[in-house]
Amino acid sequence: MHPQVSAVTDRVIERSRSSRAAYLALIDREAEGSIRRPNLGCANLAHAYAGTPEDRVAMRDGGAMNIGIVTSYNDMLSAHAVYYRYPEQMKVWAREAGATAQVAGGVPAMCDGVTQGYPGMELSLFSRDTIALSTAVALSHGTFEGAALLGICDKIVPGLLMGALRFGHLPMILIPGGPMPSGLPNKAKAAVRERYAEGNATREELLEAEIGAYHSQGTCTFYGTANTNQMMMEVMGLHMPGSAFVNPGTKLRQELTRAAVHRLAAIGQRGDDYRPLARCVDERAIVNAAVGLLATGGSTNHLLHLPAIARAAGIVIDWEDMDRLSCSVPLVTRVYPNGSADVNAFEAAGGMPFVIRELLDAGYLHRDIMTVAGDDLTAYGAKPVMDGDTLAWRDPGASGDEAIVRPAADPFSPDGGMRILKGNLGRACIKVSAVERERWIVEAPARVFSDQLDVLEAFKAGELEGDMVVVVRFQGPRANGMPELHKLTPPLGVLQNRGFRVALVTDGRMSGASGKVPCAIHLSPEALGGGPIGRVRDGDIIRVDAVNGTLDALVDQAEWNAREQPAAPPPPAGMGRELFGMFRGLADEAEKGASAILAGAML
Question: Which of the residues 63, 83, 314, 525 could staple to 19 if both were Cys, CB 3.0 to 4.6 A apart?
């Protein structure tokens, strides 16, 4: 192993020693004594079997494994619309393997792309906790010996895992649906957005560009949070190998899903290849996910999601671990917004099998983890193909395009492109893999806002001409649910294109598609409750320094200490936001995952 990866893994193991032991003790108790089909009463079993007459006899006999399907299907979210027919197909494939399958439950799956910039986005982060709770409800019936988790997008995969890990004695496989075919190139879409922000494109032109980019069923093709989820499931060994970026509606996609169902039937507790989720998701798998995030230039949202997933398994990983890894892990991919290619081009150039093989051979990934497919991660370095009508895996060979994916020995950058910033404003993270190096340091006057819509209005009014650090506060998990502030990307990009030195500092989030503008995000502690971002005033000189890892307001210390905190905006209401007051009130800080439910769970 690379010495830094090994050292960070040791830190995580040591820090997690007591919480991981407590978690595994819980899972062992569940494996030995939890409610399960042989122990259920006859009326309970009759209720469970009544809805599936085709499989009732096999279920009643009790010899077949019963697989619970937890699905995030809806046809408003393109990535999840593909799941419409999956349950009925999976029931057939389960029977082929001598098993049965039932839809255990559904989980909500909202689309951040639809809610960006609107009040519904303030429900987005806590939809992850809701998904975790819904997953727990789905699996609480005691009638399943394993589970298939159907989910792809931003909060859905983390939420599924957070809930599923509390049933970690069961084997589980995550089943993706794949990205939509390529449409309008992402850079062309971004250019139209910037033209519209400047008033040089009509709404009709913008809508045409957006529909050209997001045009069919499947995951969006840029490398945002959804596709970063799929990368992480690969490097953690929770997919069938090579499943992440195979397009929907293809024979290969269908056969990978079929193989996942067959494999799930083979790794149950009753067989000789038992692979419970709790043992697959260990400290090494979590570090693998962090390495994959950095090596591929993935979404900053996972600086929230990965700690939350880890905590659900009794594991504690923090931003310091991420920072140390980022200094050593090479950047081996360039996928939009870190390059011009989309995930389909990435897949064609070698995709995750190439990346995993390279990182394994260079010692950046832990090979010796329990995966759903085998005893270690080696199988994930092979690419799935159809050999006639048979699913097979082959070596991915050399990179098909070194402008998209490179060997670990010849990376795009020797480091992973994420930094942790610390200073008198608190702790924040910044993604610099898509930021030109001469923009890694911005020192400029602050312009302070408490709502992203006010930033947009100031831009439209021509008030944001010049070098500046835009400060947007009261956007943290306790204030308003920590919405993404992706609507700010086009105007900030326009200002940067005009030659100004600009940066964003916020206790909120940016989209996984954020790119060329330096953004210090997830600032903790947040403004609500007294975080120092509340002390910033218009005109204060703010220094964002991704080279040295600092974030400071350059204000006289006595004056800084004497400043009072501003009044907080009223609690959000409307669009159902008032229903999430409990989540906001219980949420912990961003570095711990910004979760309400984990703050009260046994760790």
Answer: 314
